[in-house]
Amino acid sequence: MNVVRWGMIGCGSVAERKSGPAFYKAPGSALVAVMGRRLEAVTDYAARHGIDRTYTDVDALINDPEVDAVYIATPPDSHHAYSLKVAAAGKHCCVEKPMALNAGQSREMQQVFADAGLHLFVSYYRRSLPRFQQVRQWLEQGRIGEVRHLSWTLTKAPSPKDLDGSANWRTDPAVAGGGYFADLASHGFDLFQYLLGDIVEVAGFTARQAGLYAAEDAVSASWRFASGALGMGCWSFVADRREDRVEIIGSQGRIGFSVFDEHPVELHADEHISLEIPHHEHIQWHHVLGMNAQIRGESQHPAVAAEALKTDWVMDQILKRH
Question: Where are the CATH 3.40.50.720 domain residues in the chain?
Fold first, then answer.
């Protein structure tokens, strides 16, 4: 197939700018249908983005004969059920991250698609971003020698929504599989395993220090990569300010970057290099290109279910999920 025709389930904030436009703007890609629970919202989204067909029924979109693949842009509690419907319809699928509520659900999803010979992707799009391709290149070139340690600090102050107790699925463990940690740290753990290999041992502590919502608001963890390198992380979502800093320490140098913020990517080794590598306007652009290329049999995309499953296992250990 020259053009992969996508249908999208969900038309919320992520689909507005980060992902949705990439599915219809990227070469060899088309977004032909969109589904939302509220008719007014999905009709408005379709009109603004030039999408021909709208649905308020999940099954109707999934079984649309003009749809080749389905992008599930909904909270994690629906990923398992919706993706199995997509597999039953014989179509490829991409689910937003985290992949599901726990590794058990993710493992079943991955196996069902593998048995059916279908592609299942997960929107860990940071693997495809040019800034992290640069970090990976430095590591592969041995610019910092043997990797010894990785550390990540991610903090932010409570939002007005957190403080006033407004409904927020990202802090509802039943919907999100945890709190902001599940939503954000999963991106980091997936990226770190892409850069440094599998995490094979992990332990962590969680707390509700401010008690603003049901989920954890503070997490500390340490882990070991298969290579022998060690890692540690500190996450606080009730802190004084925002900070997002990763440092990879090697035997001959260091690499520094942010997982989310667009700070320079820095190499401190035999020379100091600081690179400004901005994101694409639609941050999932490279992810969409990679998925379509794999569906067409042209290349292998790194953000696949078998890789995402590893991150859900890590999250399960830290959050003690079952």
Answer: 4-123
Does the pLDDT at position 1 exceed 80? no
Is 90 exceeded by the pLDDT of residue 11?
yes
Edge-to-edge order in the sheet of strand 218-225: 199-207, 218-225, 230-236, 147-155, 243-250, 254-257, 265-268, 272-275
Give the three-state DSSP class for 295: helix
Tokens found for residue 218: 């503070």
Distances (CA, A) of 308 to 42, 50, 109, 124, 256: 29, 32, 11, 8, 24
Report the 10 Å Cβ neighbour count for 297.
8
Spatial distance between the Cα atoms of 98 and 100, rounded to a whole number of angstroms: 6
CATH topology for 130-278? Dihydrodipicolinate Reductase; domain 2 (3.30.360)
**In the block, residue with structure tokens 């006033």:** 164
Mean residue pLDDT across the chain: 98
3-state DSSP assignment of residue 210: coil
> What are the phi and psi torsion angles at 96 (to 5°)?
-65, 160
Residue type, 289: L
Instruction: Write out the H or E segment, with its range, that includes residue 140.
Output: helix 130-140
Q: What tens digit of pLDDT does each residue of 49-83 get?
A: 999 999 999 999 999 999 999 999 999 999 999 99
6, 23 contact by CB (below 8 A): yes
Q: What Å distances lie between residue 244 and 134, 162, 185, 188, 257, CA to CA?
A: 18, 20, 11, 11, 8
Report the percentage of the chain scoring pLDDT > 90: 99
**Is-contact 9 89, C-beta < 8 A?**
no
Q: Where in the chain is the domain with CATH 3.30.360.10?
A: 130-278
Are 175 and 168 in contact by the 8 Å Cβ rule? The answer is: no
Question: What CATH superfamily classification does 4-123 receive?
Answer: NAD(P)-binding Rossmann-like Domain (3.40.50.720)
